[in-house]
Design goal:
Layout lengths: L1 H10 L3 E8 L2 H10 L17 H11 L1 E8 L10 H21 L4 E6 L5 H13 L5 E5 L13 H9 L3 E5 L15 H19 L2 H4 L4 E4 L6 H11 L2 E2 L2 E2 L3 H10 L4 H7 L1 E3 L6 H10 L5 E2 L9 H11 L2 H13 L11
Parallel strand pairs: 1-2, 2-3, 3-4, 4-5, 5-6, 6-9, 9-10
Antiparallel strand pairs: 7-8
Helix pairs in contact: 2-4, 4-5, 5-6, 9-12
């Protein structure tokens, strides 16, 4: 049986899931204490009693060789308290790093950063990469509605660019009391729109041009970007009510985005969690180069099996192979030898 399993490992490379949430019990308890506005931080019912061992078993059942893990986006670690954000980020990062060591190859990790505080964030980046040897970092789409292209975040982006970091941007929302549409979960439509806001913030501020060695990943197929990309490109030619044909306006846009907006948008990476519905995937596939599309599941909030089956319905066998594994290896080559 052991020999048969070894042979299976050699021939079945397995998927790489770049959007996989984990639920450390002590961290969640401390997160709740730091910000009781969000209420109890128990794991979702589908992963009650979550442990790293159970997570590994879930990967086996889903045909996933490696999952790059990240913190559940809401409530995050920023509640207006720099010390709390710093402590919670370090606690989560230490837990995830131990998990990756205990299950070598099965898990990678995106380190949590204590943004928006710059000094704490720069220290955590140094620790995360130099001591914990993380695979990338996770940031939120906004911090109290300051989006990642904000110049106040540029020192952080500069350091991430120096390290040629992979940066996963997860959409975010404020506590339930701030729901825009009562009775509608924010994740239903606010998440996709907030991802789009984060993308536009990074590109139009000139951040993606200025920091070209950061590899950004956006979830849920890039939110509404595939449908709005043409509008973004065209209407940014209008500045203060004038068409960008006038020298000062044209110069300003060219200075910030010298290679053009569409060029910057197509350099981004997009994962397919909840984006395998044919119209959604077709829009993404028509807009983004196939090399920039990654396999993600948003586990445990969405079904891995549904994603695998849905992708096969909308993509060719060659595209499936690239999206499920090969494209991710361009970002995370160390997982090339990991098999089921």
């Amino acid at each position: 049986m052991a020999k048969a399993h070894a042979r299976k490992q050699q021939v079945e490379p397995g998927r790489i899931d770049v959007h996989h949430h984990i639920f450390p019990a002590q961290f969640m308890a401390n997160q709740e204490k730091r910000n009781p506005k969000w209420g109890p931080q128990a794991p979702p019912v589908m992963v009650e009693g979550w442990t790293p061992k159970l997570a590994c078993e879930a990967l086996d059942q889903a045909g996933i060789a490696t999952a790059i893990v990240q913190m559940k986006a809401a409530p995050g670690v920023w509640f207006g308290d720099v010390t709390a954000a710093r402590d919670l980020a370090r606690e989560w990062n230490e837990f995830a790093a131990t998990m990756t060591r205990d299950f070598p190859g099965r898990f990678g990790m995106f380190a949590v950063l204590p943004m928006p505080d710059t000094d704490s964030t720069l220290r955590e980046i140094e620790y995360a990469f130099d001591v914990l040897h993380v695979d990338g970092v996770q940031i939120m789409s906004h911090y109290e509605f300051r989006y990642p292209g904000d110049r106040r975040f540029w020192p952080v982006l500069e350091e991430l660019n120096r390290r040629k970091a992979v940066v996963f941007v997860h959409p975010f929302y404020l506590p339930p009391s701030h729901d825009i549409l009562p009775g509608v979960r924010p994740a239903t439509i606010e998440f996709p729109f907030d991802s789009t806001r984060a993308i536009v913030s990074l590109v139009l501020s000139g951040a993606t041009s200025r920091f070209p060695d950061i590899q950004f990943i956006f979830c849920h197929g890039g939110g509404t970007l595939p449908m709005l990309a043409g509008r973004i490109v065209e209407l940014t030619r209008v500045v203060k009510g004038r068409w960008v044909g006038e020298p000062e306006d044209e110069h300003e846009l060219a200075r910030k985005v010298p290679n053009g907006i569409e060029h910057e948008l197509k350099r981004l990476y997009f994962e397919i969690a909840n984006a395998y519905y044919p119209p959604t995937f077709n829009a993404l596939h028509a807009f983004a180069p196939q090399s920039q599309i990654l396999f993600g599941t948003d586990f445990p909030f969405l079904s891995v099996a549904d994603h695998a089956e849905g992708l096969r319905k909308v993509a060719t066998a060659q595209a499936v192979q690239a999206i499920e594994r090969a494209n991710a290896l361009s970002l995370f080559p160390k997982f090339a030898r990991v098999c089921l």
